[in-house]
Amino acid sequence: MKHTISVLVENEFGVLSRVAALFSGRGFNIDSLSVAPTNDESISRITLVTGGDEQVLEQISKQLNKLVDVIKVIDFTDGSGIEREMALIKVTAEDESRAEVLRIVDIFRAKIIDVTPKSYTIEATGSPTKIDAILELLRPLGLKELVRTGTVAIGRGAKGWKG
Amino acid sequence: MKMNGARILLECLKKEGVDLVFGYPGGTVINIYDELYNFKEIRHILPRHEQAGVHAADGYARATGRVGVAIATSGPGATNTVTGIATAYMDSIPMVIITGQVPTALIGNDAFQEVDIVGITRPCTKHNFLVKDVRELATILKKAFYIARTGRPGPVLVDIPKDVQIAQTEFSYPESIELRSYKPTVEGHPKQIERAVEMILGAKKPVVYVGGGVVLGNAAAELTEFCRTLELPVTTTLMGLGSFPENDPNSLRMLGMHGTYYANMAMTNTDVLVAVGARFDDRVTGKLSTFAPHARIIHIDVDPTSIKKNVRVDLPIVGDVKGVLQRMIKVAEANKEKVALLKEAMLPWKEEIAAWKEKHPLTYKHASSVIKPQYVIEKLRELSNPDAIVATDVGQHQMWTAQFFGFTAPRTLLSSGGLGTMGYGLPAAMGAQAGFPGRQVICVCGDGGVQMNIQELATIVQNRLPVKLVILNNNFLGMVRQWQELFFDKRYSQTCMELPIDFIKLAEAYGAKGFQATRHEEVEETIKKGFATDGPVIMEFKIAREEKVLPMVPAGASLNEMVLNA
Ligand SMILES: Cc1ncc(C[n+]2csc(CCOP(=O)(O)OP(=O)(O)O)c2C)c(N)n1
Predict the structure, then answer these.
(1) What three-state secondary structure class fits B434?
(2) Cα separation of B124 and B415, whole Å?
């Protein structure tokens, strides 16, 4: 089962490697990872997506909490969060496929951000499932390059993470 | 007042009440040593190896309950500390390790004697710091000590570049520290505590399983009071030995791989298992799927990550064991009738345990034709002071000490449990003796492990530390040989030490005294002579070479599948 976990940490050097080491030390893969400062410059927010059985994830979540630099751990797996991701996609677009690409971009409310006679570069945002869906449609046309930011997530409702 | 970083370090140590450090000089800590030259409030002991320096600080911490401090230079000095740090980390020992680092401008340049010790020790410290600015030094040290000793204790490393030691700033030490990201839970949930006592009072076959957390949390008195009030059977791990007196009729002594038959049987048959400051290590549980199959499990620990890590738990209590046990005592006192009922309900259980004890007591085959190691340990107990501290190395002698010494007080056994570090014993004994110059400190080693830090005899003699070093010499790496005998068809691959060492001459070479026993009749006299001699002493016992540690739960087997005599 996939878990999306937000980790609020002190914005200091070495913190990311402490967090990453908890996963690598247990032979666990991090599927995606994104890090940036928050509205409070002294706090960074790490969002990571990982898989694994429940018991191991409970242990990882406790271990994350135990790290001295970690302020808070939020697991969004229960659907309590909104998840978004951005992808930049370079796709082959020649002759008849040019129109097809444009149609797909339109349906997904994505954007063309670079054009050449042989290719389009697309910017798409949305839930990770939406990104997966557009990729599935574009793949047969010829994907040249793909960059995904990794999921970021925020809790639903009026409250911030501090409550 | 303005002062340099090196001086600030020493002032901070003083503020933390540190009066003894173990350290080894070198290029990137030379400024610290220069300040130390005239700094009279801190005593410095120079070990002969940085690993031993860290083990000594660890032994000091385990024996005294205070934070142990060690210093090493950058590069090889720092890497030499790693085994010592990992040993302390696995057993949750509060320590602060100071390493020198190359000047900040050179970090990352593969400078002479540069290693990324913060990166190297990240997985084996509770936390670590690289100090990049002298103005942060005092606050970081305050944090280091706070983190090392609070919650579940552990080693904290502070890496200080040379230029930070030289740079000057105004010194002020923070009175207290608040970390928004580090708030150990100390007070157990009162409702959970009530429920736990209720569950125990309703049990028919309860067992209390005690780990090192009770020793670390200074809760042995509370644990003993609670268990005695309810007359509960108590078993301890290696790390928990001494937290409940082993001469108490309700002591089941040690459990696990080399635990007693009756402790392991009690674990297998209990209906309510109360784990206090323990972590369900695989050497304790045996095969997990058959561990305590009939029990509801109560788990009390200050570290939430310990709970439900290896076994399911029915009633978790996160909190400082001392406070939790104090509350449990109060709840029990308020339920006197139920306590009386429990005692009655436990009678058949006590009979069952007594039958196990009678069937397979903790014993060994006595002999007078050879020296039995177990006999040496029994004699050591008999002839030593009641408050003696015993450090062990790792191997068969460690288990014989754990089984046969009969520990009755906390912080009297110093042993590397989690990491099982050979070479730990002698320096740990040295650290404990430095902390308690007036107490008897005995170190029990095998002939293999003692040679891993034998150079510390020099430190011991130089500092007039009257450590009594007992070597149980089987001329084998005994514990590995035992596994080879039992599970590898006696193929003794690389476990015979072949070259006999003259440990008596070795003692003399370092300026210590040495006594040897080669026959059963000489054991008592040798120990008496050793204890009666002032200063450091080696007592060597040529023991029955192929004696085994029994009983034994083979790795991966269930606790009730013990090899009792093989
Ligand atoms: C540093 C280290 N290396 C290897 C081991 C593996 N090991 C565990 S016990 C043991 C044998 C110890 O032999 P000795 O010190 O003579 O003690 P004995 O078992 O004979 O009492 C070995 C090699 C270890 N625990 N630590």
Answers:
(1) helix
(2) 18
Active site residue B113: yes
Yes or no: say if B297 and B310 are a contact pair by the CB < 8 Å rule: no
Question: pLDDT tens for residues B45-63?
Answer: 999 999 999 999 999 999 9
Closest Cα in chain B, distance from residue A60 (Å): 9
| Chain-chain contact of B180 with A71 (C-beta, under 8 angstroms) | yes
Give the C-alpha separation, A42 to A52, whole Å: 31
Please write the tens of the pLDDT for every residue from B217-274. Answer: 999 999 999 999 999 999 999 999 999 999 999 999 999 999 999 999 999 999 999 9
Is B112 a catalytic site residue? yes
CA B148, B149, B151, B153 torsion: positive or negative? positive
Distance CA B292, CA B198 (A): 20
Instruction: Map tokens 């050497």 to a residue.
Output: B283
What three-state secondary structure class fits B398? helix
- Global pTM value: 0.96
ipTM: 0.89
**DSSP E strand boundaries for B193-271:** 206-210, 234-236, 251-254
CA–CA separation, B250 and B538 (whole Å): 36
The backbone torsions φ and ψ at residue B316, rounded to the nearest 5 degrees and listed phi first, read: -85, 140
Which residues of chain A from 36 to 75 reach within 8 Å of chain B, CB to CB? 55, 58-59, 62-63, 65-71
The whole-angstrom separation of Cα B292 and Cα B298 is 12
Burial class (CB in 10 A: 0-12, 13-18, 19+), A157: exposed
Question: Can you list the positions of beta strands (E) in B187-271?
Answer: 206-210, 234-236, 251-254
Q: Which amino acid is at B80?
A: N
Tokens representing B149 are 């000793």
Tell the burial category of B207 from Cβ atoms under 10 Å away from its Cβ (0-12, 13-18, 19+): buried
Question: Cα B490 to chain center, whole Å?
Answer: 32
